[in-house]
Structures are given as structure tokens and as C-alpha cells.
Amino acid sequence: MRLMLAYMKPYKGKVTLTVFLKFAAVILELLIPYMLEYMIDEAAPKKQIVHVIIAGLVMVILAVMVRSMNVAANRMATLTARDSIYTLRRDLFKKTIYLKGADFDEISLPSLISRMTSDSYNVQSFIGMIQRIGVRAPIMLTGGLLVAGIMEIRLSVVLLCMIPVMMFVTVFVSSKGIPVFRNVQAKLDDVVRVLRENITGVRIIRALSKSEYEKRRFFNANKNLTDADIRAGMMMALPNPLMNLLLNIGFTLIVVIGAYRVNAGDMKPGVILAFLTYFNMILQAVMGINRIFIQYSKAGASADRIALVLEVPENDRQTDNGCESGDYDEDTVIEFDNVSFCYDNNSAESLKNISFKVKKGESLGIIGSTGCGKTTLLNLLLAFYDVSVGTIRLHGKDIRNMPLHEIRKKFGIVFQNDTIFNDTIYENINFGRGISTDKAKEAAETAMIGSFDMDYPVAIKGMNLSGGQRQRLLIARALAGDSEIIVFDDSSSALDYKTDAVIRNNIKKKYRDSIRITVAQRVSSVKDMTNILVLEEGEMIGFGTHESLLKECEVYKDIYMSQMGAFE
Amino acid sequence: MPPFSTKTDKPKDAKGTVRRIIKYILKYKELTATAVFLAVFSNIFSLLGPKLSGNAIDVIAEGEGLVNFNKVYYYAGLMILFYILSVIMSYVLSSVMIIIGRRIAKQMRTEVFDKLTRIPVGYYDTNQTGDIISRVSYDIDVINTSLSADVVQIVSSFITVVCSFAMMLYISPILVISTLVTIPFSIIYTRYMTRKTRPLFAKRSKKYGELNGFTEEMFSGHKTIQAYANEEGVIAGFDNINTEAADAFYDADYYGTIIGPGVGFINNLSLALVAISGAFFYLYNMVSIGQISSFVLYSRKFSGPINEIANMYNELMSALAAAERVFKLLSEKEESADAKDAAALSDIKGEVCVKNVTFGYDKRKPVLKDMNITAKPGNVIAIVGATGAGKTTIINLLMRFYDVDKGAILIDGKDIRNVTRESLRKAYVMVLQDTWVFTGTIKENIAYAKEDASDEEIIRAAKAAKLHSYIMSQPKGYDTVITEDGNNISKGQKQLITIARAMLADASMLILDEATSNVDTRTEKAISEAMIALMKGRTCFVIAHRLSTIKGADCILVVNNGAIAEKGTHDTLIKQKGLYYNMYISQYD
């Protein structure tokens, strides 16, 4: 609720006006039956035709006013809902985009997506609804109670006794409701996850003819969702009839007590009749309020899930630029100083005591077997994660003290499995960096993209390109920024040797000033690098040139032999 | 009448959509019948309350000292009884409706999922994952909510309307005429608004789909966006789409929420009309005051539900638009059904013959032209060539993810279009360049191709894929849960899992699509030994760039520009000094 209120707050003025208009409309609407009563009880019996017509006209005028006010109020309510949810979605999107790697992984991609979509819709419909119905019901309730109280205070006591009981039921059920709905959303996450996996793995699933198996897996997730949803629904359906019953029992009590009072001569029978009208009004109001509470349970659970993302602590980096290490040497650009890292406290270290330097004009190759920590090393270098022990320095500055943008501006990078966007070739290369078309073309040529037009539209996930074309596009993206450091994480796996070699030569020639870091499995991709870092199980087991490693590093030699040996 | 709808998609077919929804409801005949029964009686019972209270009040109206308490208690007792009955019934009613709604939602989700297993693979290449997901997560939920809440409301409203109209007729047929004047207004107004808002609601659904698609795409590219510090650029893109979605929401909901007050206005107008004409009729002694007041009470009851329905209008419209999107997916073209006389492939020897095949994803732009490949049982066919030459396309055709445009593919002499897809695909094991694991334990992921695999077999496969020691280093060993996007497993390890998975599968043909490219060369050597064992006796199609892997192939096909440029063994191709020779030499650059 806090979240929703916070997002409605900027529209305080509008919300107040909406409430006021709704309030006025309700009052005016209550006047219509009053005019009717006047016509029937006063004017008609006295045969005052002019009065009848005037009263009739007043009714029509009131009806017009009520309509205009309601329309205006609804329009504003919708406007508020639109603007507040627009801002909420924007904030949530922004927050998610800026989320740290570890936080992103913890909440998980499918869950973040459903928070952005189905949860935000739940909140949206609640914000719209509470303004439309939320005003009318409480006014009706207070108005009804007030008039009833004035009319016959003793009978109203019965009603007043009922109200707290009903409120208790509403509040109790809806507080129980939030966890129940949270459970439903969690089960929905599961359904979405299975669905997502089926979409991304469609080729393998079809190839293995596992559709039936997947159907069963989906069936289970679907069943769990349905069961949770039915449980939530049955629970939320409880307060309405329960309150109906309570109110009606109250009403019966009023009839019985009324009977005694009339019998004793303390009250006229007509009062009971009048009570009926107000009783109905109160009943409607309580039902309305109850409906809001039910909606609230659902929207509240969703709002909680959204708030959880929004409340993830910001990247609280101390950007203290003055702090440089003592033995800083001008030429060193990248320095790993005894770095160790583990993804979470329970798991083993992914990197252990890594120390090396890369100087201006140098290049670095990283090689090692699967899972040895190559990608982790890059994650640390780009500050997606912070080191557990040790320091990483860029130009002598501890990267933990640098703003993220400043770090990342220095890099052009191709990740494993990198993302291609549903946009033009140019936009995929430019990627919001304001790179000129010529620069982009140059990068595209270096990466040998081929004859593509710069505004050739790339399909979703780059599906109209082949694997190799995708990788070349990604390489062009990394090159186009003229970055100080260009990183290739296994970015030539879909390229044949020849293309790979030509592109490497192109880059070497054209981007001489940039530091190149290449993570690869092919010795041929890294053997020309100034230094090669050999990793095994998170440990640095070799660092040096190709030639020196061949002599000193047994593992490197093995890799080289297994790869090249086949040709000899 | 020409449809009002603007140019969005095809003309929207509301009646058809409603009819389809009703079909779903009718699948629960017993439950629906129970619901209708409960709705009728719980409403009638609750309408009895006021009548009984009226009787009680008549008794009380006898006045001071004359109240017959026996009768008062009699009526009060009946009131409580009927209220309790009505409440129980209405609770059971909502429960029944909830069960119907949720079951229909479940069934729709199942149908969508089943459909997704049957539509051509190409559908996934051209539709955003997020958009597909939003049909299951958002659209179906909207239908579900509407079914369980709104339908009850409509049914009980209907009963109230019918009952009160009968009472109104009973009280004063003349006054009914003045009510009737406004009814056509209501109908015309609602119809007009419906026609105006339906396209708006359809647009709203569509925009939400786009928003979801964009969200999915960008969240998936989270890391890249951060690495290029393009957060603001992506947020700007989101702003556009978010604005469009918010505007579409506003347009639809604004017009939607006008309807409530509009109908309310017509009702108030009708009340004024009844009052004025009532007053006149009274003057000419055609009705009594009592008749007017009870007539007014019932006309309120009569118009109340109409008002309610108008208020639910937005929800109904969203539900219809959502249903249309779901039904549209359900009517997507499926992979062509197996031929009627399709036989299951059995006792496959593994002879594969690609004959004069021409194919293009876009028929005007063929990717493969008049291609011929012959593989004898047990042959290893290596396919090499520059990127984009059409290697992956060959695999797509072999597996029949797409049908050839011209020519034919034969297995053991049988055209693959004449055998069942399932038996065809089961005849292959496949390791693709896009590694795919699902959320589940490592064991489940390995045993994916063979559910009844024993632990021993799984461990043997994992050992062969050099994965066993990694698995054992995990705290939970083979029961470690891995996720598709998780960080507890690297891409290379995922690749090893898919290799282990393939090793377990029992098939006579094997497809490797750059399968070893994510495993470093040192591991690869060990794997290739295991692979050789796996390949034994199977016809293999290998797409790999590493020449060492394909050197031992029986036949190497060098693909260039959609056609086979060179064909032969390693030695003969080297002697030819053609494309293959150049590729081979470039390795030593």
C-alpha cells in the first residue's frame, strides 16, 4: 500500500479533485430521490402541476450534473492511474536495468519479467479502481450510518455493533489474502519459467521428441498454479456472503427490537421502514469496501513484489577519484592485485590469488579449460561483481572507488551468448553511444559483416542472421566505440579459422592503440598476444608469451599440442 | 452495418470470441447447471427477505400494545433461515464459479502450451518470447478473473432484472411504458460505445504485448546493456513504449469508464420520467401513491444491475480482447500434420540422402540450391564452410523443422515427409551450438533424452563427457539444481551437459552443430574420444570449424553460397588446393 500511495502522491491535487467530484456526485445523486419524494408526497397530492414539472426539470438537471461530474472524476482517476503506473513501470524498469549482477541473478530473470508485467498490471487496475469505487462506498457508509443514527439512535446501536465485526472479517481475510496471493504469483512465476524454457529450447525439445514430457512438466506447474488460485479465490469469496449474513442478522434484530419498541409505544412503525432504505445503502457500501479489500490483497501482493525490487540497495559506490596506489606506474592500465572471488559465501572460490598487469599497447590472452574462471575474471574487471579479496586497478585507481559508467566507458566487449537487439544493424553497433555512421561502417568492415546495409533490420534475437554473422555484428559493436580496452569473450566460436584470422589481423592493424583482451579456447586466437594468462580451476598457472609458456607451462603445452597436433 | 473498427489486424469478431468462451463454459455442464441453479435460488431467497420483513412490519404496524410477538418471531425466524440459505448458496455459487473460471484458465494454458509444441519452429524466431508469455500470464488471467467474477454478476443481474420487470408490469403497466422510452437509449448508447471502445481495448492488449516483449528482450540483455553503459538509451526506448502502452490504457479505460455514468444518467432520466408521468397519472387517478413508490423501488432494482454491468464493461472488454489474443495464438498454423499414411521409422539403418534440395526461409531467396548429399549408414559427414553458407539450414531440413521447397530428403529410401515426425526426430541425437538446460537437477538434465535411465547410465554418460568430477565437486552432486540463466554453471559446463545428454540417447543418427566450440580444446580432445565411441555405427552430420575434428570424416562437404563447392576426404581435398585447402592453411597464419 505504501508503494501505491507513494506513486499516487504526485497527483495529490488530481486525486483530491477526483475525490471531491465523486463526493459531490454522490450527494447530488442522493438528492434525486429526495426530489422524487417531494413530487409524490407534496406536489402531486396538492395538484401543483407547475411544481411537478419544476421538480422534474431539477431531477434532469441533477442527472446531467451527476453524469458530468462522474465522467470528469473517472477521467481524472484514469489519468492518475495512467501517470502513476507509467512512473512506477519506468522506475521499476530503470531499477532493473541498473541492478547489480548478483541481485539480478537472485531475483532471476523470469521473475523480474513477471514483476514488470503481470504485477504492474495488478497495481494499475487497483489504482484505477480505488479512485472510482473507493470514494463512493465510504461516503455511502458514513452517510447511511449518520442518517440512521439521527433517526433512531437506539436501533443504530445494533448497526454500530455489526460494523466492527464486519471490518474485522474484511481486514482479517485480506491480511491473510496477501500471502495467499503472493503464493499465486510465485506459482505463476513457475509456469512462466517452464514456458520460457520451452520457448528457448524449442529446437532441442522437438529434436528429442520430448513434447509429451514437457507437457507433463507444464501440467504440474499449471496444476499448482490452478490449485493455489482456487484456494485464493475461495478464501476471498468468503467475506462477502459472511458480511451479508451479519448485516441481515442485524436487520432481523432491528425488526425484533423495533417490535418491542413499537409495542411499548416508543417508536413509530414507519421508522423501521425508513431503516430498510438506509440499511440497503450501508449494505451496498460495505460490499463495495470489501471488494476494494479483495482487490487490495491481490494488488498488495504484487506491490510487495515490485517494492522488493525497488528497495534493493543502490550501487553505493564511493567515487573517490583521488585515491591512487603508491607504486602506481604510468604505463599500467589494468592491474589485478592478489584477487580472489566467490559468487556466494557458501561456494568455493571461483578465482584464487590472481595478480597480473597489462600495460599500454599490450594485449592479453586468457586461456583455460571450461569453468576455470575466465568469464568470472571479466565479470570482476567490468565491476559486475566486486572482488572478495584483493584489488583491481584501472590506471592505478581501485575500481571499487570509480563510478560504474567511468569503468565501463573504457571497454568495448563481446560476451559469450551476447544479446542482439531487434533493431537495425547500425543501432546494434551504435547501441546508444552516438557513434557516427561512418565509424559504425568502419567497424562493420573490420569485423567483416559483409554486404549488409546499415539500416538492415535485424530480427528478434538476430534470428535472420547466422551464428557467425551474429558474432561478427557483436565484434563490430565492441570495436565501434574506439574503446581503450576491447574484450572478446569467446567471440569467435562460430567463426571458421580463416575468418577468425582475418578479423584478428584487421583489428590488430586498425585498433593498435587499444588493449585487446581475448578469452579463447583456440591457441591460434591468443598466441600472438603480448601475454597469455593460463587459468586452471580459478588459479593462475601460467603468465607470459606464447614461446615462454610453451617452455614453462605444461598445461599450455598440452593444449597447444592437442590442438595443433592433429595437423602434424 | 460496416464495422467501426479501425485498421487493427483483422476485423475483430466479438460474437465468435464470445461463442468460443461459451464453448469452454459448456464443457463444465454440471458445474454450470449447479451455478445457474444456485444463482436463481440464492437471489430469490434474498429477495424473499424484504417481503418477509414487510410482513413483519405489517404485524408491528398494529401499533402500541397490539404487536403479536409470535408472528414477529415467526417472520424473523424465517428471515434468518432464508438469509442463511441464501448466504450458503451464494458462497457455494462463487466457489463453483471460481472453480469453473480457474479450470478454464488451466485448460486454456494447457491448450496454448500444446499449441506451442506444434507450431513451426520459425514462429519462435519471429515472435518475442515476452509476448508469447504474456498471453499465458496476463491474457488468460484476465479471462479467468472476468469469468469467475463477472459471469456471476451478469447471471444474478439478469435474474433481478427479470423479476423486477415482472413486478413492475404487475404493479402498473402504464408506468412501464415511460420506462420503456429510455431502454432503447440505453441499448443504442451501449452499442455505440462498444463499437467505439473495442478497437481501443484490442490496441491496449497489443501494446501490453509489445511492452512485455521489449521488457523481456532488454532484461535478457541486462549485462550487455550495463557493459556498454547504455542504460539511459534503453530506458529512453522503454519510455516510448511505456508511453504508448499508458496512452492505450488511458484511451481504452477512459472511454470504458464513461459508460458507467452514461448509463447512470439514462437511469436517472428514466426516474425523472417515471416521476413526472407518475405524478400526472396520479392526478388523473390512474395510479396510487403506494403504487408509484413501490414501482420506483422496483425500477431502481431494475436499473441497478444494468448499471453494474456497465461498470463491469471495462473488465469484459479487456477479457474479450485478451481472449482474442489467446484464440489468435490457438489458431496459428501448425507444423503440417504427418501424412495420413505416415509410418513410424523403425529398424533404421541410417542411410540419408538429400536429393536436389532447394530451400529458402523466404521462398524468393533460396539459402540452399539444388543440394545433393548421400550418407551411407555409419558414415561421418563433415559440413564445413564460411559462416552464413547454409550449414545450420541443412540441419533444420534434416530434422524437418522446415520442409524443403524442392527435392526430397530420404532416410533408408523413405521420403521423410511420409514418416511420422516423432520417429524421424527420435532417430537423431543432436547437440546444438545454443546450449539449453532447464531448471532442474543435473541428473534430470542429463537423463532428459532417456527418462528411464539408471543412475549408473547417467554417471557413465557424465564421466564420458568429463563432467563427473565437476558434478561431484558440487555440494549436492547430481542433485544440484541448475537454471537456464543461472550463474552456478558456465556455458562450457552447460555444453558438457548437453553432450552427456546426447550420449544417453538411443538413436541411429547424430547431429553435431559446432557442438564442441564452447569446450576448450584440451577437454575437447578427451570428449572427441568419447564422441568417436558414440559415433560408431551411427550416421553423423558434424558441423564444426575445427579441422582436427573433421579430419577423420568419411566425406567432407564444403558449402559455399548455398551449394556444395567441394566434396571428398581430407587428403583428396588438400590435394585439390581449393577452398578447403585455403581454410586449412589459414590456421597457421
Characterise the protein shown here:
The complex is a heterodimer of chains A (568) and B (589). Chain A has 20 helices and 10 strands. With 568 residues, chain A is an alpha/beta fold. In chain A, strands 6-7-8-3-9-10 form a 6-stranded mixed beta sheet, with helices on both faces. A 4-stranded antiparallel beta sheet of chain A has the order 2-1-4-5, with helices on one face. In chain A, a hairpin with a 2-residue loop joins strand 9 and strand 10. Chain B is an alpha/beta fold. Chain B folds into 3 domains: 18-100; 118-330, ABC transporter type 1, transmembrane domain (ABC transporter transmembrane region fold, Up-down Bundle), CATH 1.20.1560.10; 352-586, P-loop containing nucleotide triphosphate hydrolases (Rossmann fold, 3-Layer(aba) Sandwich), CATH 3.40.50.300. In chain B, helix 1 (14-26) packs across helix 10 and helix 5 packs antiparallel against helix 9 (289-311). The longest helix of chain B has 53 residues, at 231-283. Residues 1-11 of chain B have low confidence and may be disordered. Chains A and B meet through helix 2, helix 3, helix 4, helix 5 and helix 7 of A and helix 2, helix 3, helix 4, helix 5 and helix 6 of B.
What would you say about this model in short?
The complex is a heterodimer of chains A (568) and B (589). Chain A is of the alpha/beta class and 568 residues long. Chain A is built from 20 helices and ten strands.
